[in-house]
Protein 1
Amino acid sequence: MNPTEAPDLVTTIGLEVHVELKTNTKMFCGCPVGFGGEPNSRVCPVCLGHPGTLPTMNEKAVEYTTKIAMALGCDIAPRSVFHRKNYFYPDMPKNYQISQYDLPVGERGSLEVEVDGEFYTVGITRAHLEEDTGKSLHIGGGGRIHDADYSLEDFNRAGTPLVEIVSEPDITSPAVARAYATELRSILEYLGVSDVRMEEGSMRVDANISVAPPGERGKKVEVKNMNSLRSVFRALEYEEKRQREVLRSGGSVTQSTRHWDEKAGRTQELRTKEEAFDYRYFPEPDLVPLEPAVEWLRQLREEQPELPIERAKRYQRDLGLSSYDAGVLRSTKALGDLFEQALAAAKKADAKQVSNWVTNDLMSLLAAVPEGTKNPPLTGSNLAELVDMVAGGDLSKSQAQQVLQKTLETGRRPREIADESGIKQVSDEGALEAAIDAVLAANPDVAERLRSGDNKPFGFLMGEVMKATKGQGNPKVVSGLIRKKIS
Amino acid sequence: MTELWERTAADLASLVASKQVSAAEVAESCIARTNEVEGDVLSYLTLTPEAARAKAAGVDAAVAAGEPLGPLAGVPMALKDIICTEGIRSTAASKILDTYIPPYSATVAQRLYDAGGVLLGKTNLDEFAMGSSTENSAYQVTRNPWDLSKVPGGSSGGSAAAVAAGQAPFSIGTDTGGSIRQPAALCGVVGLKPTYGLVPRYGLIAFASSLDQAGPITRDVRDAALVLGAIAGLDPKDSTSLPGPVPDYMGALDKGVEGLKIGVVKEISGEGVNPAVQTRFREAVQILEKLGAQVGEVSLPTFGYGIDIYYLIAPAEASSNLARFDGVRYGLRIDGADVENMNRNSRAAGFGPEVKRRIMLGTYSLSSGYYDAYYLKAQKARTLIARDFARAYEQFDLLVSPSAPTTAFGIGEITDPLTMYLSDICTVPSSLAGAAAISVPAGLSADDGLPVGIQFMAKPLDETTMLSAAYAFEQELGLLPKPPLWSPS
Ligand SMILES: [Zn+2]
């Protein structure tokens, strides 16, 4: 072996995910939570950190955090405490962030993820509740805080409840990291606690990645600014490769924080960590510790929805769906719910048929609807009616596609739409026979060619019959009748 | 003839309610009195005569219309300038808040407004309540109405002096380690620090959040009960405020001290306390015995650690509470090359030396590597003090001690901060225990003729017992003579 070549290297990744909760109001005041808007239009003395103001706890935020911790299998702390994390930054109104330190809401959980049919368990270190900061806009100069001409502060986001979910460094590849972030996002969406929009920053993923020979500890590199699940994967893949190359060439990795540049497709060093910053944590004297009642916790546990990965397993096990179909159906809670409602309402169609309509036709139609899969404009009973009409031979597949489109647009029942616009499939042999006879009579030469065994003009005949029935003939019945007549 | 400004809050409230005088007359009397002596006493940082007149007119209209009146309707008052008042400059006696006009009112202020109180102005204090003499104000040194060469105590020195000088029948101070009780003692008035959590902190510019409490400074115990009743009670805006009904403090005044077990705290009744103060204190204890109290000595072994513990905990919280004064959103801004330098310049120019000292002390005791040895240890020691108190209250209904180790000292006399910190030696321990305490005048020192105070300390939320004992004592001793400043020269 080439002596400069390092032995097999192991990648170790831990993720830190921040999730903005979609509570009505901010964590410690009554200001509404929202995205964007006129700068400093959602602020009050409390979230602006005016002298004398005090925080009051948003109970919904505590509930959501507890639900998240439960879904991640964490131990829920019987007593959890808020701490002040002290550091100066202009977008932080009090120059401390109310966060949690040694007694978070939840600890010691885990998350199961699937990559290419293989399952991985990632440990969850902790899930804690804290407040978000405002946003700085650095104008002029170098455009950064230290070299801008001036900075503007927007405190609309300041005080938005934020849950931080820290994984154990159990993740061994960028693909597993992406699967973890995807699964986590899906769980949060199922719980209904966050918009989890990475592009809007309501879910933010930071990573720690190190590469080292087995049994050794590598230098931790923190990667920031990954604004989509795809960029989580790309950034970590890039960083893994970069560190491997550094090590293979005999160099050493510098412990640092690096910024993912999506356009350039690479990470850039922001700062090296010479020493850990001292946040002077101490218990927040303005708040009392959280001591959730046992009964309340029991109730929350009862209300927990089935987790997406469990749902997918159930669809495969109990309904015989493929892994792919189950994966599509579980991808948002709304889609899975729609599928289940439709299946329950369907009288003729089976699980496979309902699933096919969701995973194929509906998915392609929803692609054109913003947030379509999170909030499909379709009821389960309408979907069931449509699928039943196909299963019962009342609509052809292409007719049903037209009707589905109209149902999505108008919200009206498929049968109503079909009846009104005269979209129907004729399967009655008597009604079709006349049309076929007329077509055969009008095209005697074609009929003759078929009789002599030349199958080529069959399609032409089918087309003529469909034309004559205004597209309503059941193709299966029509072709059966044509064959019967020429034999 | 007694002038209106000389009357107590309770008297004024009943005079106004019974239409014997108008709120406007009361306000004019206090405004005139304020103007008469303000040049000597310097109690106020901001005067609000126009707002006072408008409020008084509103009260008079309510009286004329026969509308229901609050318990303080038409009673003038002064608020320590660390209490936020909407639309009225609130500085905490700091240059960093020189131009700060709060967009909201503290719960305490709002409750007093709702009770019909008429705000005369905002009183001086040690900057951010950090001090025991009001000399740390960035604006002026308030003088003791008993002797204008002496300090009024602190940090609520302006509030105590205003009441002692006849400028306002009552004022509100805040007490973190003795900032109501010590100046009340030095100015010969009554000062009550409620149980932590009884009076909401929302709108008090925070010094040490786990200790800060607002409370009344009055000329007699009855007024203290009256005002406490108006400001106490749960506030949904303060998570640390305590639930439960507010007792009838006025109704409990006449219960007396007979049969009450009163413990004299051994650790602060002898050594470290000026002999002339000790003498008055011993006489006060004899009065309590004479009134039928069962007096005994009680030892609180941790009492002596109070100041040490306090100066680890309070500055730590202050260092974090005061971080928000950064020039970004309000208050003083001194530009710099970048945001960090702007922060630094603003804070360097805006904070006085004592505030800077405490920010540094607190930053240090919270630092990683020192946290366990300082802040955490102090918090543990604090629980030991609370335990000592709890043990003492197993035997005694109330504890008593002098309110301060000395009478008022000279302006400029104490320059060493550590010596100054010892002014709070009597009051800090009960603050750390979160218990209620009141300072009541116990006569004048034979040495210098300046007031001496006795401190009654009660179990948490037992203000009623404390007030009834203080009231009985005051009735027996009689009110102090008025300070020389009282009668116009
Ligand atoms: Zn707000």
Note: Residues 372-395 of chain B form the longest helix (24 residues).
Protein 2
Amino acid sequence: MISLKALSKNSFKTLLIFSSITIAVMAIFLISSVSQGVIGMYSKMINTDGDIIVTQKGISDTFFSNVDIALIQKIDALPHVSSSYAMIVGASPIGHIPIAGIYGTTANHFPHYKLAEGVYPKEGEVILGENLAKQFVVKEINIGNKKFTISGVYSSEIGFEEGGVVMNIRDAGKLFNRSASFLLVSSSSPSEIDAIVGKISELSSEVEVKTTQTFVKEYNQFKIIENSSLVISTLAFAMGLMGIASVMSMIVNSRKEEFGIMRALGKSRLFIIKNLFFETLIMSISAYIFALLLSLGILAMLPHIEMLQGYVNGTLSLSTALYVFASTIFMALLGSLIPAWIASKTDPILLINQGCA
Amino acid sequence: MIQASHVSHFYGAEQVLFDLSFEIKSGEFLFLSGESGSGKSTLLSILSTLLKPSSGELLIDGESVEKIKNIDYFRQSKVGFVFQFHYLINYLSVYENIALAALEDKKQNIEKILEELGILELSSRYPNEISGGQRQRVALARALVNEPKIIFADEPTGSLDSKNSQIVYGLLAQAVKRGTTVVVASHDMQIENYATQIIRLKDGQIL
Ligand SMILES: Nc1ncnc2c1ncn2[C@@H]1O[C@H](COP(=O)(O)OP(=O)(O)O)[C@@H](O)[C@H]1O
Ligand SMILES: [Mg+2]
């Protein structure tokens, strides 16, 4: 087939187009995947462990929220509440590590962190996430201005939890000057959740109560990450697509002489367009597949890169993959076929002469 | 067979052909001579339908070129071209280059023509793997493959030494003997020995 011959004999041009498509497609995949991944991990952390979240009124960020832990007893006394726990989420230098997540929680939440070795922490003790544990061989570490004994190591499905430290909520309270950041409440009867939300709100005027689903949906940080990643990845992709289209049209221009010869030999415009169509299709599809595999490979490697401590994670959604596929092929075809169609209208001899110039 | 009437051509504002009218008869070996820049290539391109004249008309067998319904088929089947630079497709072999131009029912001629032009053994080589003289013979083979009624050649020997030039002229003369009309534009006066008619151009006008 003539398209395949053209591709393989003009290997430099083929390589140029191939790599420009690959890079554009990878950029969008990685940017959108990583931001989706970060959001996914955080919402999973909140979503899986409770139906209702109680935060400080007017404070949209769990890091800055401050809630009175005494509220827990009153909540547990409410009908249809099966369990509740309190958490303090903070960040602090730990030993020689400049910053790591600190998770202070009530003892009933410890089982969320699966022990890989040792025992759950008592007062003055901590357990380290598997990723963080790799960086310490000592028995004791400094967090803030306090010394803690390491009582064990835990693993977690949520990547960035493995880069952190878990301790008793009272210890965390001393570090961060609060009794709790937020409370999570579970109920055994899903139909009662809205009623419970209402009752908890009545308990205190200083808290905001939401179902975890609503909370995740409305969480500002997520919106910021989501929107900025959408903007960045859209820009990256738009630039990539323009790059693809312009490389394609550059290459079509450099082939004007060839098209002129074909027209002079009596080949129809359709013949030229058809061959170019297949060339473009073969190239953009294979570059897309290459970029997809490369991106999936990188995303699979991300959680294992020690430097990132599990904070960066990526998931590639099927809809993103399909969307990128469609627009890549579309732009590649647009970039090659339109200039070729216009060029092939020109008198053959002028096309040949333009090609020489 | 080809009649040019009042043909003029402009490139932008610059007029390069001035109201030319003449006729090419079937079976002729027409030599378009003139100095470089006199308008030979432009006129040849117009005569061979590869360029639309700014004004004037071209009649082929009494019919206006504008009215030809399938210009692609016309170019492929009735006309052969040889250019100064061979203009072979670089990613196709010698054989494939000729096959690209050939009508379905003329493909069986390819080997015979390659043999006649002495380049059969180059069939599977690529254009950048053969000499300039060989390339020009491939281009000639491509022009001959559909047994066109008329062959146009623009400086067909422009990039060849005199030995290879003689070979090309000889091959064109043979085509004329078989009844093909041949129009050659060149500033090489050697062709006078082969031509049956000469049109001399100077500054876009016939002398
Ligand atoms: N594509 C073009 N655009 C503008 N001017 C051209 C073009 N082709 C040829 N010319 C000009 O037209 C004149 C005739 O050129 P050409 O037909 O190539 O003459 P010849 O073949 O006799 O050398 C020259 O002055 C040349 O510079
Ligand atoms: Mg010329």
Note: The mean pLDDT of chain A is 84.
Protein 3
Amino acid sequence: MIQKKICMLGPTGVGKTSLVKQYVEGIFSEKYLTSIGVKIDKKQVERNGSTVQLMLWDMEGIDRYCGFNPRYLRGASSFFIIVDQTRYQSLVEGIEVYQLAREANPKAHAVLVVNKVDLPATSHWSRSELEPYENHFANVFYTSAKTGESVEDMFEFVAFGES
Amino acid sequence: MDVSLLRKLGVIDCAVLQPDSGNRFRVQGDAPVWLTEIAEPYATNSVLITDEASPYLADFLIDAEAVWAGKNDNYLTAGMWEEQIKDEALHFDATATKTAEGSAYLIVQNVEKAFKKQQSVLQSAREVLLEHDEIVGEHEYIKQRLTHVLASNKQQLLDPAPIHQTIYHLETGVVVTRADGPLLFENESAKMLLCSAQKEDTTAQIHGMLTELNLNQQITDDLVKRKTSWQGELFWHNNASAPVWLQLTVHPVVDEANNHSHWIYVLSEISAFKQNEAALLPQTSTDSLTQLPNRHYFTVQLRRTIAQKTPFYLIYVDVKGFKHINNLHGYKAGDEILGAVAARLTKAVGELGFVARIASNEFALILNIKNKAVANDNALIFAEALQSTLRQPYDTSLVQGLTLDVCIGLVRYPEHAMSADELMRNCDLALYYAKYRLDNAICAFSDELKRHSEERYKLEESLRRAIENGELEVYLQPIIDLKANRVVKCEALARWQHADGEFISPEVFIPVAEQTGLIIPFGNWLIDEVCKILQRFKQQAVDVRVAINVSARQVSDQDTIDYIISSIESYQVNPKQLSVELTESVLVHSYESVSALLVKLRQLGVIVSIDDFGTGFSSLSYLKHLSIDELKVDKSFIQDVGINNNEDSAIVLAILGLAKSLNLQVIAEGVETADQHQFLIDNNCDCAQGFLYSKPMTVAAFSSWYKDYASQP
Ligand SMILES: Nc1nc2c(ncn2[C@@H]2O[C@H](COP(=O)(O)OP(=O)(O)OP(=O)(O)O)[C@@H](O)[C@H]2O)c(=O)[nH]1
Ligand SMILES: [Mg+2]
């Protein structure tokens, strides 16, 4: 069975943990409990008879209290850069995290995830603002960990790719 | 010590493993129960570390092996991680080490306690952070909407358009000015944040902030060029209210054709976040330049010290004239000097104190009374010693032998204040007096000081009103050309008669005006009045020049020269009739802005004099390189001249000689006796001013006095 390491990266509070929880357990909680350190979840995905085991590395949000540890990206097949569309600043920080991750692992696929689409975006956030960055990413998903919108899609994408 | 014992005692909850071969490990001592949940049992006292059991630990083995092979340091930790064991989440950390004898170990530790602590600290810290982000986001939003409106339709803002309404009632402060300065728009929140009384204007406050933040013309020009905004935080001391933390966004509106039309300023108060943040993570708050604790950390430390309820001193140290050093020697040198000051302070304070850098050139010390140096209330002596230490010359890689002057303010807990805020306020006050009032530049807080400052504040308020309500009046004191025995000039002096009839001397109110910034409106008022007088004199055929005094603040204010030009134009005054007097201290402290201003004044034809000459420190080089016309010899030198051959006579003669060689006119101030008058005539002094000729008088009195003087034999 193929095993793939996937890293959940991004600023604090964007919904990294919630996305994994929604995907793995089908649960969402409104309460915010910040992650400390790393937590790894496993999930098997099947398509056309082939099975992939995803190792989902959910990490502490990168902010002034927690730096970026390049070691965690070792051997990753993809990494998600997750940002929160209700918080403009998270986009700016997300791009910084992307640059660090890219440097630490030049080969992994990078996927941008714009989360919390069930909420209104900050009014000055427009999708066009992401355009300059989009070609850095293998794909972009607009997700909600709350409603589950596009959550499976994003994980299946890193498990099997486009097709 | 035996690890099993420690474990039994509950000191640490860990597994000590030694690598065997491959991913097999031998367990030293008893294994904790959780070990077999994160590693597969193998043989007796052996486990396998695998991807299935713990992918995180298995991954860490790659780094651990490098440690054991001696490729890296002898010690590496994995970082905390979480494992789901049955229904429970447990938290671990792992360390790979190698002893001096070469034995390799992997220690896996249950770090539940550390995790809980870290979690609870970071939980609040991050909630604060996210809230703060919300504010930054709000700024971004307001900025973008306003930019759009301003750039697309310049009139709309003046109409009661919906956006006007929206922004007016926002909780976030918004100020919009035209690119050239004048206020276009401000909302209630901005006024509330910045202004204590309705009368103060927000633009002046904003300029104060930009100065404090060192956002000079060069930086703002650069923002315009790059069409970007500046964002940051500042600890804002408004004179009248308690200091607050503000989040500030400064944004230039620049259209497609690169025309810069407006400035947008967006402001929010973030004091609450700042306090939370400082309380949560004080240890991260050091100043990068000096490595000393910064202002946040200092306030936290101050509160902690207060909580101990033992007496201590709070001391503020201000390095004077630092801007001058930066200008003269460059920022790098300035930084080096600050580093050196920090080092001397740290050494002087020793172990029983705390040193922080709380502003660019201001340091705070918290001195425990147990510190021998300040025991028995010898704090003033300590402060004097500190001052002399800091005044010793500094040698750095960029400058040698530089000396600094420092001012020191002190307060004592609990006598002078009980709370951190009040201690800081009172220490500020003491420092303020040390800076502006006292010769020895050290000042301890006292109730009298506080009373004095309250009186000063009252004075400031009534001066503000006096300027607005025209309670001030110009008096003129004649200046006589000694050779021609003619009135050639006069000095304009402001007289302030308070509403209750009391006269307030300029010696009292001018310093207040200078310290509070009121000198600018006052100065403008004086310029206007004098131009009006000159206009009237022209009609009355009174042919004298009128001199006004210009202060340091006015010199550094770019608008002063424009104001002079516009007054000259609007009253159609011959610029040669106007004369400007600067004191020596202005020259020394703001050399660059002075020389720029003087060149412009000279181009206009305005005569420039140096006032109170001899009392300051102006060196010959200043005089040579500045565009000046006259020296006014201070009255303290004139007092004793002519009585006998004393020292003062010698100084006056020296000044006369110096002036002659530099081709400058000399005016003697404070001439009161016939002997002094004769001495000046005998030694070819050009002009004189003093009670011997006349006291300052009203403008009407002056013109008739002038005519009488001209007609006397
Ligand atoms: N409405 C909504 N809320 C979400 C969504 N995703 C996450 N949240 C909420 O956002 C907060 C943060 O979610 P987390 O999943 O803990 O965020 P995180 O990125 O793991 O945060 P850190 O571990 O601190 O870096 C929680 O209160 C969640 O309930 C979403 O898609 N929609
Ligand atoms: Mg999380």
Note: Chain B has a mean pLDDT of 84.
